[in-house]
Amino acid sequence: MAAIDVQDLRKTFKVQKNRGGLKGAFVDLFKREYSEVTAVKDISFQIPEGEICGYIGENGAGKSTTIKMLTGILVPTSGRLTVGGYVPYEEREKFVRNIGVVFGQRSQLWWDIGVIESFELLRKVYRVGEADYKKRLDELVERLELQELLNRPVRKLSLGQRMRCELVAALLHNPSIVFLDEPTIGLDIVVKSEIRSFLKDMNREHGTTILLTTHDLQDIEALCSRVIMLDDGRIIYDGGLDELKQRWGTGREVAFQFGTATKLDRLEHLTAGMPVKWTAENNLAATVWIPLELNVSDVLGRVVGQADITDIKIIETNTDDIVRSIYQSGSANVAEEAVPAPSREGAGHV
Amino acid sequence: MYHLGLLSEYLKNYMKTRLTYRADFWVEVLSDLLFQVTNLIFIFVIFMHTNSLVGWSQSEVVFVYGFFMVPWGVFACFVNMWNFSERYIVKGEMDRILTRPAHNLFQIFLENVDPPSLIGSFIGLFIMAVSGFNMGLPFEWWTIPALIVLTISASAIYMGIYTTLTALSFYSDAPTGIIPLMYNIQSYGRYPVTMYNRAIQVLLTWILPFAFVGVYPAGLFLQREEMTRMALLTPVMGAIFVSIGLFVWNRGVRKYKGAGS
Question: Which Pfam families does the annotation name (chain A) (predicted)?
Answer without folding.
Answer: ABC_tran
